[in-house]
Automatic annotation (TrEMBL):
Its main location: nucleus. GO terms for cellular component: nucleus. This is Zinc finger protein 572. Residues 4-31, 32-59, 60-87, 88-115, 116-143, 144-171, 172-199, 200-227, 240-267, 268-295, 296-323, 324-346 form the C2H2-type domain. The keyword Ion transport does not apply. It is found in: Nucleus. Gene3D superfamilies: Classic Zinc Finger. Keywords: DNA-binding, Metal-binding, Nucleus, Repeat, Transcription, Transcription regulation, Zinc, Zinc-finger. One of its GO terms (molecular function) is zinc ion binding. InterPro entries: Znf_C2H2_sf, Znf_C2H2_type. Belongs to the krueppel C2H2-type zinc-finger protein family. It comes from Charadrius vociferus. PROSITE patterns: ZINC_FINGER_C2H2_1 (PS00028), ZINC_FINGER_C2H2_2 (PS50157).
Length: 346
């Protein structure tokens, strides 16, 4: 029996306190404030989880190997690796495996060994199965086809994730607010809104982001700034000065576009979804999502894209160009996202 009913959505609860907590979803009330950073939360449990970022606390200890965790859910997932059915233990991290060959494959993570080499581009992998999947990038093979819409995929996991679009299945639930997601990566990103975790840090200015896409967008700002500085150095000072900073421009239109970045002005509105943009070019690019237009075609394989930057990234799969270099070890990558993912291991 659930005698306490929410008047907003009709959901029932056994006790009044549970209803009070639930109603904060509708009211937006966040009464629990972090004393360290001022961020507010709906539940005391969420605040407690968030505060571990400031304190570095990991109170959940594995009694088998001594490893500690911020959340009990993380500990439970870890403890499954110590099952009696998994007698082969990795001495580097304590993880257990059911077969010796699984342990041998796992240990390549620690040793860095990558014995499987792609004959087309030279990239190396620590598993044969990963190499086989990678080679489909070169061959264009997409063996996993959706029976609903006919779309094909390189990996079976991509097809499984895609089919949830048709079924509406959202198997990944947030423990903090009961919101559900189609992909585990979406849940991980969402949970950072509760914990305040921002693991993607800009090495140029120290600003942090909850997901890699935010950092990539931010890093482009640094790259564009360096390019503009270089252009000004070669061309001399422009006649149109920005009233908010020291920048100057040779064209009035360029100065107007730049000023929008200071005042937050977004005068260009999409007629389909009401989203607004600071530049007309950004609106045009966005509208292609609605129209399906893909005017940028790859001359090598006839694939089409809705913006030129995505086409440039794609063409590197043909040219093998790798312009993004890791300053720590010198390894190069074709995409900035791949470089950022790599840098997290340094």
């Amino acid at each position: 029996e659930k005698p306490f009913t929410c008047h907003e959505c009709g959901k029932g609860f056994r006790v009044g306190s549970a209803l009070n907590k639930h109603q904060r979803i509708h009211t937006g009330e966040k009464p629990y404030k972090c004393a360290d950073c001022g961020k507010c939360f709906r539940l005391t449990s969420t605040l407690s989880t968030h505060r571990k970022i400031h304190t570095g606390g990991k109170p959940y200890v594995c009694l088998v190997c001594g490893k500690t965790f911020q959340l009990s859910a993380y500990l439970l997932a870890h403890q499954a690796t110590h099952s009696a059915d998994n007698p082969f233990q990795c001495l580097a991290c304590g993880k257990n495996f059911s077969l010796r060959r699984y342990l041998a494959i796992h240990q390549r993570i620690h040793t860095g060994e990558k014995p499987f080499k792609c004959s087309v581009c030279g990239k190396r992998f620590n598993r044969r199965s990963t190499l086989i999947v990678h080679q489909r990038v070169h061959t264009g093979e997409k063996p996993y086809k959706c029976p609903e819409c006919g779309k094909s995929f390189i990996m079976s996991s991509d097809l499984i994730s895609h089919r949830r679009i048709h079924t509406g299945e959202k198997p990944y639930n947030c423990l903090h607010c009961n919101k559900s997601f189609r992909l585990s990566s979406h849940l991980t990103r969402h949970q950072r809104s509760h914990t305040g975790e921002r693991p993607y840090k800009c090495l140029d200015c120290g600003q942090s982001y909850t997901d890699s896409s935010g950092l990539i967008k931010h890093k482009k700002m640094h790259m564009e700034k360096k390019q503009r500085t270089s252009q000004v150095a070669h061309q001399g000072e422009g006649r149109y000065k920005c009233p908010y900073c020291s920048k100057s421009f040779h064209a009035k239109s360029a100065q107007v576009l730049h000023r929008a970045t200071h005042v937050g002005e977004r005068p260009y509105r999409c007629s389909k979804c009401e989203k607004t943009f600071g530049h007309s070019a950004s609106l045009l690019k966005h509208q292609r999502i609605h129209t399906g237009e893909r005017p940028f075609k790859c001359p090598n394989c006839d694939k089409c894209y809705n913006d030129s930057s995505t086409l440039r990234r794609h063409r590197r799969s043909h040219t093998e160009e790798k312009p993004y270099k890791c300053p720590s070890c010198g390894e190069c990558f074709g995409a900035i996202a791949a470089l950022l993912k790599h840098q997290r291991f340094h």
